[in-house]
Amino acid sequence: MKMSDDLEGALRKYIVLLASEAYYDAHEVLEEAWHPMRLRKDPMANALKGLINAAVAFEHLKRNRPQAADRARRVMQSYERHKALAHDAAIFPSLFQEACVSVERLKATYTEIFEGV
Questions:
Q1: Which CATH number goes with the domain that contains 10?
Q2: Residue 65 has what DSSP assignment?
Q3: Residues 74-110: pLDDT tens digits?
Q4: Could you tell me if 65 and 30 are in contact, meaning their C-beta atoms sit under 8 angstroms apart?
Q5: CA–CA distance from 112 to each of 49, 65, 66, 70, 103 (Å)?
């Protein structure tokens, strides 16, 4: 299986997992694709890092531990920093964009937390 097949499958799973509120699993599935990309300094590694961190932010909120909102805001900043890369993706642009749309939809359900992030 080629790396691109792994990335495509990971992005598809990420979108489904976000929709089912399985944020930790969404983070994990993209992290598996991210590690080899990071090591070879792939320009899309940061786009994946942003999506991974968005899932982490939602997991913080889901677990509702002390300081969850502050932690979620901090982690979401990584997504915000890198989301433009996802919109300009050279490989699987529609999947990267769909992943961002999923994140933005979820963010909209937490406007009081992510306002201004």
A1: 1.10.3450
A2: -
A3: 999 999 999 999 888 888 999 999 999 999 999 999 9
A4: no
A5: 24, 17, 17, 12, 16
- Cβ atoms 17, 23 nearer than 8 A: yes
Q: CA-CA distance, 12 to 26, in Å (whole number)?
A: 10
| 9-62 per-position pLDDT tens digit | 999 999 999 999 999 999 999 999 999 999 999 889 999 999 999 999 999 999
Query: Residue 107: how many CB atoms within 10 A of its CB?
Result: 20
Sequence-separated contacts (24+) of 63-71 with Cβ below 8 Å: 69/113
Q: How confident is the model at residue 115 (pLDDT cuts 50, 70, 90)?
A: confident
Q: Which domain holds residue 68?
A: 3-108
- Region label for 21, one of left (φ > 0), alpha (ψ between -120 and 50) or beta (otherwise): left
Q: Is residue 115 part of a domain?
A: no
Alpha carbon distance 29, 33 (integer Å): 7
Q: Structure pTM?
A: 0.92
